[in-house]
Amino acid sequence: MAPPRRPPLAHALARHLGLVLVSVLLAVSVIGYCALYLATQARLPGMFELTSSLNNTMPLALAALAQTMVVLTRGLDLSIGGIIDLSNALAALYLGTTAASMALASALILLAGAVLGLVNGALVAYGRLQPILVTLATLAIFQGLAIRVLPQPGGAVPEAYTALLVNTGAPYALVYVLALMLFWTVLRRSQVGIALLAIGDDEAAAAANGIDPVATKLVAYTLSGLIAAAAGLFLAAQATAGDATTGNGYTLTSIVAVVLGGVSLFGGRGSGIGAILGAFVTTMIVNILFFAHIDPLYQSFYEGAFLVIAVVLAEGLGRLVRRRRARA
Amino acid sequence: MNDADERHAASLEAISVSKSFGGVRALHEASLRAFPGEVHALVGENGAGKSTLIKLLGGRLRADSGVIRHHGAAVALKTPDAAHRLGCWTVFQELTLLSAMSVAENLLLRREPRGAFGLTSERRLRQTAEAVFARFGIHDIDPGALVEDLPLADRQVIEIVRALSHDPDILLLDEPTSALMERETAWLFGEVRRLRDAGRTVVFTSHRWHEIAAIADRITVFRGGRDVGSFTTLGEDEAVTLMTGQRVETLYPPRPAAPASEAALTVADLAGGRLASASFSLHRGEILGVGGLAGHGHRELFLMLFGAMPRKAGRILRAGHEIRPRSPRQAIRAGIALVPEDRKTEGLLLPLSVRDNLTLAVLGRESRLGVLRRRRLRSVAAAMTTRLKVRMPDITSPVAALSGGNQQKILLGRWLLADCAVLLFYDVTRGVDVATKHEIYELMTALARDGRAILYYSSDAEELAHLAHRVLVLREGRIAAELPASGLNAEHIVAAAMRDQAAA
Fold it and tell me: Do B406 and B434 touch, CB atoms closer than 8 A?
């Protein structure tokens, strides 16, 4: 006789608590944004606002997904900003004008990002060094390389490239967002995704089950580098030129987005979809601050305050759900 | 059968294997020979090298020297997978489940049922896990639950089912029963017998002699990192002598004299969690046993007295004065200390030294103007390690380097130093070897003779029957029976714990 089971919904809630919370957060911030917009502009935001929000968020969504790969393994990738800088600088110089040259240059830049990520991974996995130390050092190195490649902001990104990645006419970027979410879903259900979560959960236990921690970390950092390089390409397309310092802010904002997205900094828990939604929450906060006429000088103050509130709320709710489950 | 034939027939052999950890020799030229169709028990004190040997055989660790043979051929077990490929599966003592993942994901880790594009799904996982559990007669574990939400016993069962589901040719079980109740242990032994009858090899370790006697075909005794003999029949006394290298006269010391009439702790209508209501008095110099099946409120009783869990109702009087401990800190100040069962998660700071762990609760007392008196701390700690006969490399070695029994002694020593009048002992002998158990019993009776009041829960009814002045049996959150020491035996306690309401 099987005893009563908890309904699948309860399990789903337990497993995807972070995802549920970030969805609520996103809904609340979108509603807040719309209300403010209505109050100041006397109409609701339309297609233009949707398109620009999506386009503006794409680089951060990518950076957050890149960060997720590493955070899930109980690491932290501070070099994301440096990889974005470098990929952005390379794109501004080498994209060319023909479709073939753009495709080839993009592929090579993504490959370069993956290689830089692999270097991080090798230092962490073989060198047994702290991820935060390794990536802090490589962040500086990658930033230096980027400046060497493109000392002054400049270069040019062909219009066709911008039109493809950052179409301002219609919210095509939604397709990219969905593609990223699909990528995560596939990864999560593959051997690799399970290994990422497993070694972040308990490395010794994962190893006892035959999961190779070294190989898994190499994959995590390589994917992080690859996806961060993609963020650099989107930034270049958006700015239609290159700037070797444009990525610097993404190191920290990617961590913010990941935390808002319910990915545990202690590893083993969280979802890439949550991190992507976390990126959108971050964008919405910036939009809200803009329409609330907050002096840009104080913007980081409010962003920080909001992050603290969001994290405290998420923690509190999480604990509440956990306690109720323990009682059930 | 001569020696050469026997070696040929063995399914798994370790020959003169040695393994050291940072200068500490865990195994020294130890050998083991296990045969098809046998259940082979490894016995020995904590720290005798059993777990290390199992880790070597399971591919978790690599030997410094020595040979491991599988059906006569030398093998290099570099990884767990290498052992798995030989059909050798292990249930390690410290479980290897991933706590943030579901039961099904853990059960099917790395062999997830995969559909289109090689992807798995939660539904597919759940269905397959359901089928695996059903195959082994397990119906009360929800495959969709997260492992972290399950009690230890369920986790242990999952880990065992996972190993069994690989249809092992050789199954290694390191203390599989320490977290299990009788019913689950019976289930496990049924599976073990099934494997044996199918000609497989099962190697297991246990500290419970009746389990070993019930199921083992061959017993290998370990002492100090090497095997000291292999037997097909062996009595408990003989085994203990081999394990400790000395004769233990009687396992249980005599009960201390009758306690004083003065109550050290009085509990009235205490309730919270699974504890519905409990009232009793604990006297100075008394060992008051608490028995009954797990999950009937024992844990809650102890945690509430120690201020580690909020009370729903009831009063606690300490030497006549009402106290309301809301944190362990307040309980300690009122002279109440708790020695928990799970020393790794509930009390010891494993990377810190023996000295630091021992003196943790008395740092305030042993300091002047907030500055620690280091020399004094050291001498206090050293005296305690001598008194408790702690076996350790040095007083500054990390507690993590000590064996389980010695870790338990350190935890005991900490509360002895804190000089608490009321000691709450919660299943302190679980997973502890016979020799250390004996030392803990002696210590407990000495403390009672000293006038301390001891509340003592044990999952082993035999211990309670031998040591306690009275035994309270908890059932469904209430005190179902109070049994006096005279003429008490373990069966009485178990009977009182099991009896249903109608028969009571």
Answer: no
